[in-house]
Write a structure and sequence with these properties.
Layout lengths: L1 H22 L3 H14 L4 H13 L5 H14 L3 H15 L5 H6 L5 H9 L5 H7 L1
Helix pairs in contact: 1-2, 2-3, 3-4, 4-5, 5-8
Length: 132
């Protein structure tokens, strides 16, 4: 029982440390902690949300991976927080005027998805990523 409590306290302190690092804008260090938490606890919604928050704060390149983390958190949990983060990531997709999100995921897109992406209008970005 004591070992379990120590494990939980240790895990909570990692979340707190990652939050402190986010506040200090030390995203690489926060990301290492969050990735370790997701790796150690792949079913932990909070770990996926933490990693998603960090990736979302990353310059443009982190937005699509953040969306994937929020989507995983939403899949693991039916709570409103997971869906709220997922929805905010989709909202950001609508503002991606440089198509940076598409450039990141193009390599994994099917031929049909490539065709859809190439024929979509800028105002359709959000819907496209919601169904990607």
């Amino acid at each position: 029982m004591i070992a379990l409590l120590l494990l939980l306290v240790s895990q909570d302190s990692l979340y707190a440390r990652a939050d402190s690092l986010i506040t200090a804008h030390n995203l690489p260090a926060a990301r290492r902690i969050a990735e370790a938490l997701v790796s150690a606890h792949p079913s932990d919604v909070a770990a996926h949300l933490l990693l998603g928050r960090i990736l979302y704060a990353w310059p443009v390149a982190g937005r699509y991976p953040a969306l994937a983390e929020f989507r995983e958190a939403a899949r693991l949990s039916k709570d409103a927080e997971g869906y709220a983060w997922y929805d905010s990531a989709l909202d950001a997709a609508a503002l991606d005027s440089t198509d940076a999100l598409w450039q990141q995921v193009r390599a994994i897109a099917s031929p049909a998805e490539v065709a859809r992406a190439e024929s979509r209008q800028p105002e359709d970005r959000q819907q496209f990523f919601a169904t990607f």
